[in-house]
Every structure is written in structure tokens, then in C-alpha cells.
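Example protein as discussed:

>
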Amino acid sequence: MRHYGFFRIYLFAGFLLVNFPEDVQAQRIFDAQGRTIGRVYGDRYIDAQGRMIGRVNGSRVFDAQGRNIGRLENNRVIDASGRLIGRIDEHLLFDAQGRRIGRVHGARIFDSSNRTIGRAEGLTCEQIVLFYYFFE
């Protein structure tokens, strides 16, 4: 085994295996204090303890047991019952009543008072929104 920066290379019976640490493979979401509160691996959402808490398949969102819990459709966040729970306009976030509850600007997430409440690493605005509406 050899270490090269962020990854390890194993040579085993003529096969080359490259092992990337989880921080390289996942995009992360942090709270205001910089603690990791979640990760996204492909379509899976993972909590800070490493447990899968949900999946996204297209615009549909599922909990860890595979139950449909909502969707993101035309910039509207809708729960499993079909009720509007939020909306995205550009990078502004609104609740079901139309009140501005926050915004996403670059990698930073702000509340309605413009205080930083978190940041993301390598995630799209939609991925961040889905995490905060369904998994936080």
C-alpha cells in the first residue's frame, strides 16, 4: 500500500485498487460552526454519523426506508401529500406562505436575517435546498 496525497493505492494479486477517502468522494454540508452535518454521495444523502437518511431520484425525494417524502418541481418544494412546503426563486428560499426564509449564495447558506447558517462544498443549489427542506 502506498499513500499519494488524498488517496491510497493497493496492489493485490496483480490488481490495482485505488481507495479514496470519503471526504474526496462526497460533497458536504456544514453548519454555521463548520461541523459537517451531511454529505451527498451521488443520489444518497448521509447524516453526520454516516447513516443514509434519504435518496433523490430525479425530482422525487425518498427517506431511508424508500418512502416517497416529496419532490422538487418547477422550483416548488412539495411534500408527499402534494402540499407546497417551500419555493425557490433564483437562490432565494421561501416557505409555503411566501415568506423569505433564506438564500443560497455560492457555497453559503443564509437565514432570513442574512446570517450564515451553513455552507456547502461541491453541491448545487437544488441539492442544498433538498437537504434543508427534507433532511435537516
Notes: The CA atoms of residues 43 and 57 lie 7 Å apart. DSSP finds two helices and 15 strands in the chain. Residues 1-25 have pLDDT under 50 and may be disordered.
